[in-house]
Amino acid sequence: MIPDQQFTQETMDLTPVLYRLSMSILRHEADCRDAVQQALMKAWAARDRVDPERFRPYLTRIVVNECRNIQRQRQRVYPVAEMPEIGAAWQPEETELGAAIRMLPESLRTPVLLFYMENYSEKETARALGITVTALKNRLFRARRALKQRLTDWEVAPT
Predict the structure, then answer these.
(1) DSSP labels for 63-103?
(2) What is the rounded CA–CA span in Å between residue 129 and residue 138?
(3) Are 115 and 106 in contact (CB under 8 A)?
(4) In the 8-state DSSP scheme, what is residue 111?
(5) pTM of the model
(6) Per-residue CA distances from 114 to 24, 82, 151 (Å)
(7) Which of 11, 33, 10, 9 is nearest to 21 (CA)?
(8) Which fold has domain 1-91?
(9) Mean of the per-residue pLDDT values for the chain?
(10) Please, which residues have CB within 8 angstroms of residue 45's CB and are 6 or more apart in sequence?
(11) What does the pLDDT look like over 80-90, one tens digit per residue?
(12) CATH for the stretch 92-159
């Protein structure tokens, strides 16, 4: 059980991280706010069942699930071509690396964001994404390989 005061403090500390994570998945500000708000409400309702040591990956996982729920709803409503581009909330420096990260598919972009940019441990990142540590390492490897390829291509032929 997580005490109310600890819950409040942890959620306040994590809210910017959760918002950046949801922005990297959804790329639409209003949907990101909805996902984070829904996740916080669900975590609050389940706070008496949450291990305080695992709260950060637990809450992150809820946000990822809420983002996926919103994506499913969006697929029923909007054609993919009309989905908005990423907003100003999560923008690593406007460099080739930032652009390359944004071009990664969600399955590779989200682990990179959590592990490298938000400093989650491998175990926390894997738990938050609902995958094994081995699968996480595999995704991080594939993401690094894709980033290396994109950055090498840009060095040879800048756009």
Answers:
(1) HHHHHHHHHHHHHHHS-GGGPPPP-SSS---SSHHHHHHHH
(2) 13
(3) no
(4) H
(5) 0.60
(6) 10, 27, 21
(7) 33
(8) Rna Polymerase Sigma Factor; Chain: A (1.10.1740)
(9) 82
(10) none
(11) 455 445 444 44
(12) 1.10.10.10
